[in-house]
Amino acid sequence: MTVLITGGAGYIGSHIVRAFRLAGLDCIIVDDFSSGHREFVPDDCVVIDSSILDTKILAKAMVEHEVEAVVHLAGFKYAGVSVQRPLHTYEQNVQGTVSLLQAMHEADVDKIVFSSSAAVYGTPDVDIVTEATATAPESPYGETKLIGEWLMRDAARAHPLHHTSLRYFNVVGSATPELYDSSPHNLFPLVIEALLEDRTPRIYGDDYPTADGTCVRDYIHVADLADAHVVAAQKLLAGTELHPVYNLGSGDGVSVRQIMTAVADATGIAFEPEIAARREGDPARIVASGELAARDLNWAMRHTVADMVTSAWQARNLDR
């Protein structure tokens, strides 16, 4: 059986492709390489170089390669930038998902795992986020992810569509040094690049109502995330009906200060982070329960914070 993975050349997508292949599942990739990396794609993997906005190309690829399920990651993923580029974000994330669902319908493909986001929750007023926590996205990016979930729900009312959405938080680390996070907006690459360029990493605010005064977040290893996508797809392919949404969370949290300490330990580079003013809109704490995903998707935090930092550091050093 073959699975189509949109955005399979990106940091997360390439790890998911790797996990599917390790599980013995064939996959093809659709990616326009606007942010993905060609070197992340295995040489023997079929690649459709296209935007997901091209419905005809998607439907043709699904039919020609006898696709039975889709894992949908492609989209514009920068929440902060989406505020400045709302129309682009809606085009890529909403129109793109409509195009993909239309192509699936035309090709008689009725199973999809959607890579959603914790951004759908906005700034929650609870200590631990669950799937029942109210959604209140605060950026066009978060809004488009929530709309993507709605699109699948509504499409499933009109014709057979078996689907689930995986909401996750801060994805870090590397399963293999050849695949790394190159985002200019994520904490790990920002800290690592600062050290590689002999700059001091920065913490935005140390006066939050947390144990050490810095923001607490849910960090999950990209390999654990990738495995959850594989299990979700396998369950759908086996005919198991899944919950519409799952949080992939730790049930605990790590502060930005703790991350900085872990980076210093892993790299052997002693530094005292620079303290800058708070950034507007940064909540003190966002942590999710992964209990539902543990029950249905064998979700678990199999990597420690030290694993996350060490693997991220090794990957970026290899790249350089």
UniProtKB/TrEMBL annotation:
It comes from the Bacteria. Its cofactor is NAD(+). It is an enzyme of class 5 (isomerase). The keyword Nucleus does not apply. Pfam families: Epimerase (PF01370). It catalyses: UDP-alpha-D-glucose = UDP-alpha-D-galactose. One of its GO terms (molecular function) is UDP-glucose 4-epimerase activity. Pathway: Carbohydrate metabolism; galactose metabolism. InterPro entries: Epimerase_deHydtase, NAD(P)-bd_dom_sf, UDP_G4E. The keyword Isomerase applies. Keywords: Carbohydrate metabolism, Isomerase, NAD. Its EC number is 5.1.3.2. Residues 3-249 form the NAD-dependent epimerase/dehydratase domain. PANTHER family: UDP-ARABINOSE 4-EPIMERASE 1, UDP-GLUCOSE 4-EPIMERASE. Belongs to the NAD(P)-dependent epimerase/dehydratase family. This is UDP-glucose 4-epimerase.
